[in-house]
């Protein structure tokens, strides 16, 4: 059974940093591209970042480019999102999501809440 | 950036009826559209990919259609468990991957 479990969310002041983790199991993690998607309270879904299985290709949304860094450790089946220079508007539930056949997402974690506030 | 526009924002439907949700892309995305269901308090769940292919385990009352810029998701014989927000997503021309604003289905 495929499982994605995020952790690392919490409360942080503007300008601060957090590192999110996503623990994957039940599939060949290194063979799949992964994504981060976020959802601000009461709002819709916003794609944040993409990383291929080998980490050779990485993309970011313009809203986080230069502040967030995605990485993965295939030996540990872990996906990361390092978030620096956090802003109020980064407040959201952050989901990790596994790439499907196209670039749709067939499995999602339960999400981890990041709150940025002074 | 391709903008995905969903309508209506809210849809009220009685149990057993049919619900039709629409999604329009700002430029052609072929059939690279997925639909997700997000029940209250839950993560999104993939329903449809490739505009019309049901994901594993999705009941046949969910169907998708369309190509180019116009897409629809139809839920036939609506059930109470279908109360959710539904999102379309395009993955034809990215980054960025983009989602529609969502349609809330009320039973």
Strand segment tally of chain B: 11
Biggest pleated sheet of chain B:
7 strands, mixed
Choose one word for the global shape of chain A: globular
Distance between the termini of chain B: 34 Å
Number of helical runs of chain A?
0
**Assembly of the depicted chains:** heterodimer
- Return the string of H and E elements of chain B: EEEEEEEEEEE
Task: State the separation between the terminal residues of chain A, measured CA to CA.
Answer: 40 Å
Question: Number of DSSP strands of chain A?
Answer: 11
Rg calculated over all Cα atoms of chain B:
13 Å
Helix content, binned percent of chain B? under 10%
Percent range for β-strand residues of chain A: over 45%
> Mean pLDDT of chain B, as a whole number?
96
Average pLDDT rating of chain A:
97
Give the overall form of chain B.
globular
Descriptive overview:
The complex is a heterodimer of chains A (118) and B (107). Chain A is mainly β. In chain A, 0% of the residues lie in helices and 52% in strands. Chain A contains no helices and eleven strands. In chain A, the strands form two sheets. In chain A, strands 2, 4, 5, 6, 9, 10 and 11 form a seven-stranded mixed sheet that branches. Chain A is globular and about 40 Å long. Helix content of chain B is 0%, strand content 49%. Chain B has strands at 4-7, 10-12, 19-25, 33-38, 45-49, 53-54, 62-67, 70-75, 84-90, 98-99, 103-106. In chain B, strands 2, 4, 5, 6, 9, 10 and 11 form a seven-stranded mixed sheet that branches. In chain B, strands 1-3-8-7 form a four-stranded antiparallel sheet, with no helix packed on it. The termini of chain B are far apart. The A-B interface holds A 35, 37, 44-47, 50, 59-62, 95, 100-111 and B 32, 34, 36, 38, 43-46, 49-50, 55-56, 87, 89, 91, 94-102.
């Amino acid at each position: 059974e495929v499982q994605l479990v995020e952790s690392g969310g919490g409360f942080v002041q503007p300008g601060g940093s957090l590192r999110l983790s996503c623990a994957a199991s039940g599939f060949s993690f290194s063979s799949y591209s992964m994504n981060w998607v976020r959802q601000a309270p009461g709002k819709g879904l916003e794609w944040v970042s993409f990383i291929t299985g080998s980490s050779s290709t990485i993309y970011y949304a313009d809203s986080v480019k230069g502040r967030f860094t995605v990485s993965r450790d295939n030996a540990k089946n872990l996906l990361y999102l390092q978030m620096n220079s956090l802003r109020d508007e980064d407040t959201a539930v952050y989901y990790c999501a596994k790439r499907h056949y196209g670039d749709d997402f067939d499995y999602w974690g339960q999400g981890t809440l990041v709150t940025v506030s002074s | 950036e391709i903008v995905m526009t969903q309508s209506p924002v809210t849809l009220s439907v009685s149990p057993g009826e049919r619900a039709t949700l629409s999604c329009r892309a700002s430029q052609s995305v072929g059939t690279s559209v997925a639909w997700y269901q997000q029940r209250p308090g839950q993560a999104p769940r993939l329903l449809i990919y490739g505009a019309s292919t049901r994901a594993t385990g999705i009941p046949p009352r969910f169907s998708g259609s369309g190509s180019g810029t116009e897409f629809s998701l139809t839920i036939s014989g609506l059930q109470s468990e279908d109360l959710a927000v539904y999102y379309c997503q395009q993955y034809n021309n990215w980054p960025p991957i983009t989602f529609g604003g969502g349609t809330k289905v009320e039973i």
